[in-house]
Amino acid sequence: xxxxxxxxxxxxxxxxxxxxxxxxxxxxxxxxxxxxxxxxxxxxxxxxxxxxxxxxxxxxxxxxxxxxxxxxxxxxxxxxxxxxxxxxxxxxxxxxxxxxxxxxxxxxxxxxxxxxxxxxxxxxxxxxxxxxxxxxxxxxxxxxxxxxxxxxxxxxxxxxxxx
Length: 163
Hints:
The structure is a single chain. The chain is an alpha/beta fold. Helix content is 44%, strand content 18%. It has a single domain (4-125), classed as 3-Layer(aba) Sandwich (Rossmann fold). It has helices spanning 16-28, 48-58, 74-80, 93-109, 129-137, 148-162; strands at residues 4-9, 31-37, 65-70, 85-89, 114-118. A five-stranded parallel beta sheet has the order 3-2-1-4-5, sandwiched between helices.
């Protein structure tokens, strides 16, 4: 049986922590779909197309990983993709309560799909997209947290915003 996992998120921007989770999932599952959520409620700084493109660049070396954008309920998208598993990353204990609620809701909406939690490598546990964006917009160094292509794209966004 071929197992397809879906790793959803806003990925605004994709960080080394995100790519670490995607890489770990690619070892465990036959096919991993990194599902980039439109999520306009979060007011992302990158468009959906830009986030998909950056994720494709960052994860290009992983044959088992596909990056796709989606708008709407994860449950519907996961069903469309015939996913068997939802992968969620846990960085710190405080992530668990929210992720546990999401897993319960997804289990109710799509009982046939299991949620599993993966933790990133220790050096990435403190990295979040929101912190990376904040540091970047305040002119701080972010090269240790993101792929060079993401660094370039985020630097451009920051320049345009400051003008």
